[in-house]
Design goal:
- By secondary structure, this protein is mostly beta strands.
- Helix content is about 10%, strand content about 40%.
- It has one domain: Mu homology domain, subdomain B (Immunoglobulin-like).
Length: about 160
């Protein structure tokens, strides 16, 4: 990832979250011995091309590409990748994609996942309503196919800086 010290001053929580995921090197919810390594790449669109998200401000749209790498020599059947929506970001509706994946979302800090039409949140007064993209805390991609040893898959989503 190409991030500058300037970005850490402008947006420290985003940089910290991305760095933590990259350093830990495993998808959230994966067993510690899991050979899946996730690398997050944050980019913004400028002049119809993607450039590293070195400086982001409120309202900027950021594109996250997750490089999902199977570091084992053996094939993994249908791996699952879970990634949190960064703290100071709002998920962009219908933007999570990945070839050959099923995408689900969480509104409870990653404890449970479902499709958007089935997600509900409880308001402070106790009233239950349909969840919206603003409520999403995590995204999960379930690969429909096996991931061969020493190979990589890519998934992507967009979010907007709050």
């Amino acid at each position: 990832m190409r991030y500058t010290a300037h970005m850490s001053r402008v947006f420290p929580s985003l940089l910290g979250l991305i760095a933590a995921v990259a350093v830990v090197g495993a998808a959230v919810g994966q067993p510690p011995s899991d050979p899946i390594v996730v690398k997050a790449i944050a980019e913004v669109e400028q002049s119809s091309k993607l450039v590293p998200a070195e400086r982001v401000v409120s309202g900027d749209a950021v594109i996250y590409t997750l490089e999902v790498r199977n570091t084992a020599a053996t094939t993994l059947p249908r791996p699952t990748v879970t990634y949190p929506v960064p703290e100071h970001m709002t998920y962009t509706p219908d933007s999570a994609v990945g070839p050959g994946t099923e995408v689900t979302y969480s509104v409870d800090a990653g404890r449970s996942f479902d499709t958007p039409e089935n997600l509900k949140v409880q308001e402070p007064g106790g009233q239950v309503r349909a969840a919206t993209a603003v409520d999403y805390t995590h995204i999960r991609w379930q690969l429909k196919n096996a991931l061969k040893g020493n190979s990589v898959a890519f998934v992507r989503f967009r979010a907007q800086v709050k």
